Amino acid sequence: MRTLPVFICAVGLTLSAQEISAQRLVITNARILDGTGRVIDRGSVVVRDGKIVSVSAGAATAQDARVIDAQGKTVMPGFIDAHRHLIRGEGGQWLKEQAATRMQEFLEAGFTTVVSAGDQPEAILELRRRLQQGALKGPRLFAAGRVQLARAGEAAAAGGRGARPSGDGARFDISRPPFRPTEPAGAIPAAETIHAVETVAKAGFDYIKTAITVTPGGPEKETLALIVKEGKKHNIPTITHAVSVQDALAAVDAGVARLAHTPHIGRLDEDAAAVQKIAKAGIPMTSTLAIFLPHFNTKGEPLFRDGLPFPWDTVSSAGQGPVNARLLWQAGITYGYGTDTSWHPRETLADELRALQLTFSPKDIVTILTKNAAVSAIKGDQLGTLEAGKIADVVIINGDPLANVTSLLNVTTVIKGGEVVVDRR
Fold first, then answer.
1. What pLDDT digit, counting tens, does each position of 153-170 carry?
2. Cys-Cys crosslink for 355: which of 202, 289, 399, 418, Cβ 3.0 to 4.6 Å?
3. Pair 81, 338: CB distance under 8 Å
4. Terminal CA-to-CA distance of the chain, rounded, Å?
5. From CA 86, how far away is CA 380, in angstroms rounded?
6. Among 142-156, 257-271, 396-410, the least confident range
7. Which residues make up the CATH 2.30.40.10 domain(s) of the chain?
8. Mapping DSSP to helix (H, G, I), strand (E, B) and coil, where does residue 207 land?
């Protein structure tokens, strides 16, 4: 696997005032999965000023530290969802009525970092500000601002057998026949694209989010390459929604920083060259496999992520996505956890675990949820593993995820930036 470009790795994180002032901690009597693949059967984690000081076998002490006895439970890095959409309905009302509850749900499920891969701009930036300043308790949040690749609506209008119906974009995906465009989309002038990137940068977003569906003779790949180039000038990486093999290859050619989905349209088992090209590009990818598995409500009814009955005509993606993911994994891609759904975080985790278990081992999944998710969020230098110098995001789990991966649902304690934010021991 290749390393990420220097402009990405140089992006640092800052701890909030609340996290910096967090007490010194020593977690003892722990079975540690540090996210790198190392397992310490009886070990300790020492935390000071929101950062990890040491991870070692045996007992450890620190002056004036709060001691947490893990009682043999599993200690591992905080979970990271590197692709989520958070705000539903009008942004101001959501912030007022739902934000506190929704953010607490992430913490209680073990998620200490979440990437918003495209929400209402003003509302998501305000949510991030409140979280950073400690006015709201919740996960560490990073946000993406959108930039278009072609004239909105033209690709859909040019689609194969009639215009795409309205509704959830994954339910009626223009990347999937019969909705895939057969005519070129309208180009956006370069000056307009450059201005759009500058607008995202000035607003303070952490990423540029794009979505690519290549049209015949269309402008998408050229425009995406321009966005990547301009984004680098502002030190903002570009993440790209590409859900077909064809579109993923185009995004790789454009040099994006992250692929926001596993391609689930198109068979990589029939295209070894595409597997190698995508995997060897050194671009991380997020999973989002459970979108095409039914989510079952309390009545046992199969639902799609929009809360409506599950569209069984899309279910082929539930098998093709995991197959393509495994082929890319074996070829060396960095594959991280992401969901792109709006269910309760713990329910979403259960769904994504179902999908991941089709082709990945429990050991793989622990890496996907922690170390690789941090790389997918383009924050792997400071998050995702329990190592000295990294931010102290830690969860304690009742059970052994390496023996039974659903133990990841049994979070008892959550520490974010050295601060204990959930404790159900």
1. 544 444 444 455 667 889
2. 289
3. yes
4. 39
5. 22
6. 142-156
7. 1-78+385-425
8. strand
Read off the pLDDT of residues 213-248 as tens digits, 9 standing for 90 and up.
Answer: 999 999 999 999 999 999 999 999 999 999 999 999
CA-to-CA distance for 272 and 299, rounded, in angstroms?
42
Assess if CATH 3.20.20.140 describes domain 79-384.
yes
Residues 6+ away with beta carbon under 8 Å from 292: 170, 264, 314, 315, 317, 318, 321
Query: What are the φ/ψ torsions at residue 358 (nearest 5 degrees)?
Result: -65, -35
Query: Is the CB of residue 249 less than 8 Å from the CB of residue 259?
Result: no
| Exposed e or buried b per residue across 163-181, where buried means at least 16 C-beta atoms within 10 angstroms of its C-beta | ebeeeeebbbbbbbeebbb
Classify burial at 154, counting beta carbons within 10 Å of its beta carbon; exposed 0-12, middle 13-18, buried 19 or more. middle
Residues of the chain with CATH 3.20.20.140: 79-384
Q: Which two tokens stand for residue 371?
A: 């170390």
Q: Are 67 and 26 in contact (CB under 8 A)?
A: yes
| Average pLDDT value for the chain | 92
Tell me the three state secondary structure of residue 342: coil
Considering only 58-62, 125-129, 300-304, which range has the smallest mean pLDDT? 58-62
pTM of the model: 0.93
My answer on whether omega of the bond before 302 falls inside 30° of 0, hence cis, is no
Q: Domain 1-78+385-425: which topology? A: Urease, subunit C; domain 1 (2.30.40)
**230 and 193 in contact (C-beta within 8 Å)?**
yes
What's the token pair of residue 55? 């991870």
